[in-house]
Write a structure and sequence with these properties.
Bound molecules: nickel (II) ion, manganese (II) ion
Helix content: 10-25%
CATH architecture: 4-Layer Sandwich
Radius of gyration: 16 Å
CATH topology: Metallo-beta-lactamase, Chain A
Amino acid sequence: MIITFYGQNSFGINIGDINILVDPFITGNKLSKDQINILDLKADYILLTHAHQDHILDAEAIAKNTGAIIVSNFEIATHYENMGFEVHPMNHGGSWDFEFGRLKYVNAIHTSSFPDGSYGGQPGGFVIEGEHKNIYIAGDTALTMDMKLIPMRTKLDLAILPIGDNFTMGVEDAIIASDFIECDKIIGCHYDTFGYIEIDHEEAKRKFYEKGKDLMLLDICESIEL
Ligand code: NI
Ligand code: MN
C-alpha cells in the first residue's frame, strides 16, 4: 500500500494496481495547486468523507477525467449519481468488499453541507482493510468515543487523523484518538491550509513522540509505503 499526500485531507492510496483518491481538494488549495495537475491524478475510486468544499472541490473534474467510481454516504453518492457519475452509496457502519479490499464507512462528529448549503448527509470516515495492511481515514471529526469501536474489528497499521484544531480535533485530542484506535502510527492532515488551522509542526511531532507515538507530516506529493 502506497499513500501519497496531496494537501488538506487529500490522499492517493495505491493498493496493488488500484488507485484510490480521498477527498480531492487541490485547485482551491494554495499549498498544493501549483504542484499538482488534477488531470494527472489516477483514480479508480474517489472516496469522499463529507460534502464540504475542502473535501469535494475537484471530485467532479477528476471523476470526469478518470471515470472513477465515487464512494460516499448515500446523500453525497446520490448527488453525483444525479450528475451522471458512477457511484457506490454507503452509510455508517456498513462495509463492502471492493476489488482493493473491504471498506467501512464509520462515524465522525462534524457537519456535511455542500458548498451551496444543500444537505450532504452525515459526515464519516473510512476504514480500509487492504490485502496486507489496514488503515483508518478519520475525515473531519472531533475526538469521539466511537473511535474505540474500530480496533474491536480491525487491527490498524496506520491512521490518518486531522490535527489542525478549530474545525476538527487538534493535536492533543488526536493523541487520545490514537489511543482509542490502538494505533501509534499516524499521518496528520487538515492543517496549515487556512489561517484557522496553522500548526507548529515540530511541537505537534514532539507531543506525539512524548507519548510513544509517531506523527508523520508529509510534504505535498510525498509518499510512504506501508
Ligand atoms: Ni469539513
Ligand atoms: Mn475540512
